Prior knowledge:
The complex is a heterodimer of chains A (about 120) and B (about 725).
Chain A: E1 6-12, E2 15-24, H1 29-42, E3 48-59, H2 61-76, E4 80-84, H3 88-96, E5 104-106, H4 109-120
Parallel strand pairs in A: 2-3, 3-4, 4-5
Antiparallel strand pairs in A: 1-2
Chain B: H1 2-54, H2 59-62, H3 66-98, H4 102-145, H5 153-187, H6 203-230, H7 237-278, H8 295-331, E1 336-339, E2 342-349, E3 357-364, E4 368-376, H9 380-399, H10 404-419, E5 425-433, E6 438-444, E7 450-452, E8 458-460, E9 478-482, E10 488-492, H11 494-497, H12 508-516, H13 525-540, E11 547-554, E12 558-559, H14 567-570, E13 583-591, H15 596-611, H16 618-636, E14 644-652, E15 655-662, H17 675-683, H18 690-698, E16 701-707, E17 710-718
Antiparallel strand pairs in B: 1-2, 2-11, 3-4, 4-5, 5-6, 6-9, 7-8, 7-10, 10-11, 12-13, 13-14, 14-15, 15-17, 16-17
Amino acid sequence: MEQPFRxxxxxxxxxxxxxxxxxxxxSADTELFASFNGGTEVASNVRFLALDLSQVAYINSGGxxxxxxxxxxxxxxxxxxxxxxxSSHYEKLFRMVGLTEFLMLxxxxxxxxxxxxxxxx
Amino acid sequence: xxxxxxxxxxxxxxxxxxxxxxxxxxxxxGRLGIAYVASxxxxxxxxxxxxxxxxxxPVQKLLPVAVPAAVxxxxxxxxxxxxxxxxxxxxxxxVFADHTAKQDVHRxxxxxxxxxxxxxxxxxxxxxxxxxxxxxMGGTYAKTLDEAYMVDWPRMIGIFAGELGLxxxxxLLLFIAARRxxxxxxxxxxxxxxxxxxxxxxxxxxxITYAGSLLATLLNLLQLVLFSTAxxxxxxxxxxxxxxxxxxxxxMAMLCYVTIQFRHELRGLIRNIRELVGGGPAQLxxxxxxxxxxxxxxxAVALNELxxxxxxxxxxxxxxxxxxxxxxxKLLPPGDMTIGSxxxxxxxxxxxxxxxxxxxxxxxxxxxxxxxIGDVSGKGMPAALLMSALLILFRSEIKRNGNPGEVLARxxxxxxEAMGEEGxxxxxxxxxxxMSNAVQYASAGHLSPYIVKPDGNFSAIDCSSLxxxxxxxxxxxxxxxxxxxxxRFVLYTDGLIEAADDSGTMYSxxxxxxxxxxxxxxxxxxxxxxxxxxxxxxxxxAGSDDRTVVILELANDFCSPVGKLGAEVAAHGDVTHFSPxxxxxxxxxxxxxxxxxxxxxxxxxxxxxxxxxxxxVREDIESAVAEALxxxxxxxxxxxxxxxVTLQVQIGSQLVVCKIYDEGGGYFPRVxxxxxxxxxxxxxxxxRGWGLVMIDSLSDYWATSRDETGFYTExxxxxx
Lengths: 121, 720
């Protein structure tokens, strides 16, 4: 029943897209932060972090805590964090735990790209 | 102030005690006085009969001097005896009032024991003095009336001997009466101690009575002979025979009384020894009380000491057995348990304080559990010790996995190694798969279990094999049994089958099967089992072996009795039509490993979807329950994979109640809803604590508490 956590990252101008899949729990912590730090080292001018959560089946409080830490860390270094593909239930949970203060939610990737382009202008 | 108050209270108490003792002394003196007067009156009567009827002296001749003199003599003797008694008893009653040092008690007892002997001597001395005085004065008086008066010595000696004989008889009566009257006061200083015992011989009072009565008889017969000789008449054989018979009978009666008194005490002693030999604390009653201070008391003191020692040993043994019983009870699981759709009712009745029967129920992962019953050969402490060791061995072996046959084989090898074929244990072991409701059953020489259908039909499961502990190479056959809803799987030990009634008839398999065939009612299982065992107790009493019974019932989804209508449909479907007090129940048990909660929450979600088809709270419940399960694993069970978390869910028409139990000592959940706390939490590096925030936000109400199952978090969700 448990689905293992998987992570893919790709870059776009001034930013990184992280595609998350499976169960997002505390155990995703190491992999996620390693990937993000690697990306920032490669391109120090990263200003945007986009999270694709459409393939995430389950997020528990540990997963929430990981996302909060990630987004907070990004904000500290001036990185805007966006996410899309979040179900209405998890959107509600993100709001409950205050994650939406650090992470902007959009319905899809297109909306996120548009927002980033608008910010870059 | 308080000290002064206490002193005053003690003074008052001493004053009251003093008055009470004074009353008791007067009461005793009164009783003794009556005895003295009665004895002397008997003496007077005998003197009268003797003088008038035997010796033939006319009454007129006695009236002027002899009768008043005899009455005065009796009054003087009574007064003197009472004076001696008062002088002897006063210190004794002071000891009663003063709460007594041990030596005072011994002295008092000595005085009480000696009083009858003192009275015996005193009576004889007083009597002798009175008689001498009377005859000297009588002779002098006769000489003043008639100067030619000559003492008729043979006649005088005869009369004196007869009077002396009567005095001796009276003193014996006094001796016996005083012993009887003082008995109750002597018992106030009991139980007897070593220092008092053996100061006198049991033969003493008997010898005194025997010798005294013999001497009195002889003296009276001597009187008759001398009197007849003095009158130059032959001795009348009828009078002689009657007098001899009378005094002999009186003497024997007194001797018998004294002997009976001694025999009574001896019999008490024998009875106590027999009770002691019979054993058991119930037989070991109070200490023996004695009103004498002879060899019998010495024996009683020794017996009392032996009794006290045995009592101490019993008490110590009882304490140890009680402790062992408590330990054994704590080792066994609760008698009523529910796991998933299964209800387990187990009852264990040890024959003695501790027994060799045992049973266990062990959850194995999220969808399996094991039920075991066992019987160690023998009873009492050795069996109980082996039982405890086997229970722990079983718990460790069953967690190592494998089918029941393998578990039994491993236990068998370990028992053979440890006990060297000296211990024989029968075990029945079933592993139940809650997904398929199948039972894998293996038996090591245990009695065949039964499967009882809801209509009362039953079948015995044959699974023959040897008990564990015989041969370390043994293998055990495993049988797979399929249970249907309402089926009851019955395990039991031989103490139940072999329970015999008053006529010696065993309960037997026929009795058990007759009982099983009646299990068709919808009665609650624990109640039904308790009723059955209650009837067994009435029929066979405590029996002679431990009795254990474990019944596993596949109840499927449990519905409260009021919710039976429609519950069957609702168990797998919409519960919208339920009344507010109707609920459907389900339970899951999972190990404390992160990730285990996922499968349960998915199943719960599916069940919610069926039960509340259009509700929007399904995902809220899934997330909140997952968080509560994670908290129970992490904070309750400290992530110990051998500790389990139990989720109990009740779904009604408008309300879902979820209870999440852990095996830990409990924890204080802290959640703050303030802005500052949320900001602080966001800035903290500690990722923990978000679970409670989610539970708090998603549930309509939540709380933590503890009941007999363990610590739990309770979540309530209203239908939306």
